[in-house]
Amino acid sequence: MAKDKPSMNIVFVGHVDAGKSTCVGRMMFDGGAVTEQEMKKLREEAVKNGKAGFEFAYVMDNIKEERERGVTIDLAYKKLMTDKYQITIIDAPGHRDFVKNMITGASQADAAFLVIAAPSGVQPQTTEHLWLLRTMGVKNLSIAINKMDAADYKEEKFNQVKEDVSKLLQQVGIKPEATTFIACSGLQGENIIRKSDKMLWYKGPTLREQIDLFPIPDSPTNLPMRMPVQDVYEITGIGTVPVGKVETGIMKIGQKIKVLPGRTGEGIQGEVKTIEAHHETLSEAPAGENVGVNIRGIGKKDIARGDVICDAAFPVPIVEEFIAQIAVINHPTVLAKGYTPVFHIHTAQVPCQFIELIAQIDPRTGEIIKEQPDFLKNGDVAKVRIKPQGKLALETQKDNPYMARFAVRDAGATVAAGMCLEITKKR
């Protein structure tokens, strides 16, 4: 029975062309989740598009444009049963323009594989990917050094990439010695599900074995119910179906809910009518489940990506302003007060203004280095006061860490990342 296995969401992250989709597709195929016949169709389509060898990636990349360009644009979700878990795999885009989808993917993940191509090694965006995973609270990480076939399966190449990645891990505060590095080839199926006989020097787990080595995620079912909306669909015969991951609490049929901020910022009341996950009807969905829901009293105009469906008795706060701790990751110059980039919080994107730089903090000790700094530069950690320029549902790290984390983006790059410490609610 699927129900008896704990759920886990795993995101595959990495630079464009590192082979993320291929690793996932190969795992689905070798694990029997994709049939020989489906694979044959995908192989023919790949050849027709002049993308021979992309057939495994096509398992995840199901948008026509993605197949023609050979890049993952949106998030793709696939179910996979392992011995220990029922897994939802989230394949996140590595392409610069698509990082906002990657942030959403990382915010829904319990564990992550950072995929790095052995021939090209660490890329400029690898650091950004690591900071994002870290800020989005992904605690369990494994590094897949892929395309080992293109590096002649050489141990020296693996060790060199491992050393480069280990330096980056230390920079973002992840212990390299506690992180598993996997030598694999998605295209050839080496160390994805079956152990490779071409890399006898490698003694670690396969990609699939590593999934079951990740610890069982904590399920924050004791917190109030929150489901940030990822997408809204209109389904014939059912009506409006918002889709997303239940972050905290338990969503139940008949539950009175509120959609916040909604169009007005006041929120709209409703009642959960049906809950569905991967074509199964559920009576309840605990934290960690990716579901589609139909809500009595809520139509297409009332709800959009970035809204949060929450327990009507414990609604999520809409904030006037908030105090956060941020780490500046990648700002072209310096970050000063008055700056108004876009904040990505759960699935919402809202422009917010830095109205005060309260204090610069030593990231290792948490002590204040400087009160009221004039500006912040890359690598700085600080406490800041922020004013949303739109309606924003947000909670503090103390009340609900799952609804407190955010990334700050500007002109196509992640500038900073952080978490909310205190809020002032809207009157």
Describe the 3D structure:
This protein is of the alpha+beta class and 427 residues long. 19% of the residues lie in helices and 36% in strands. The chain has 3 domains: 2-213, P-loop containing nucleotide triphosphate hydrolases (Rossmann fold, 3-Layer(aba) Sandwich), CATH 3.40.50; 226-311, Elongation Factor Tu (Ef-tu), domain 3 (Beta Barrel); 319-425, Elongation Factor Tu (Ef-tu), domain 3 (Beta Barrel). It has helices at residues 20-30, 36-48, 55-60, 64-69, 99-107, 124-135, 155-171, 207-213; strands at 7-14, 76-81, 86-91, 111-117, 140-146, 180-183, 226-235, 239-245, 250-252, 256-260, 268-277, 280-282, 284-286, 290-296, 308-311, 319-328, 335-336, 342-345, 348-361, 368-371, 375-376, 381-388, 405-410, 413-425. The strands form 5 sheets. A 6-stranded mixed beta sheet has the order 2-3-1-4-5-6, sandwiched between helices. The longest helix is centred in the middle third of the chain and has 17 residues, at 155-171. The termini are far apart. 46% of the residues are buried.
The overall number of domains is: 3
The biggest sheet, with number of strands, parallel, antiparallel or mixed sense and barrel status, is:
6 strands, mixed
Query: Based on helices, strands and strand pairing, what is the structural class?
Result: alpha+beta
**Strand proportion:** 35-45%
What low-confidence regions span 5 or more consecutive residues with pLDDT below 50? 63-67, 69-75, 94-100
Q: What's the β-strand tally?
A: 24
CATH topology of the largest domain: Rossmann fold
Q: Tell me the name of the CATH class of the largest domain.
A: Alpha Beta
Cα-atom Rg, whole angstroms? 22 Å
- In CATH terms, what is the architecture of the largest domain? 3-Layer(aba) Sandwich
Strand order of the largest sheet: 2-3-1-4-5-6
If helices are DSSP runs of H or I spanning 4 or more residues, what is the number of helices? 8
CATH homologous superfamily heading of the largest domain: P-loop containing nucleotide triphosphate hydrolases
| Integer average pLDDT | 84
Q: How many angstroms does the end-to-end distance come to? A: 48 Å
The helicity comes to: 10-25%
Q: Based on CA inertia axes, which overall geometry fits?
A: globular
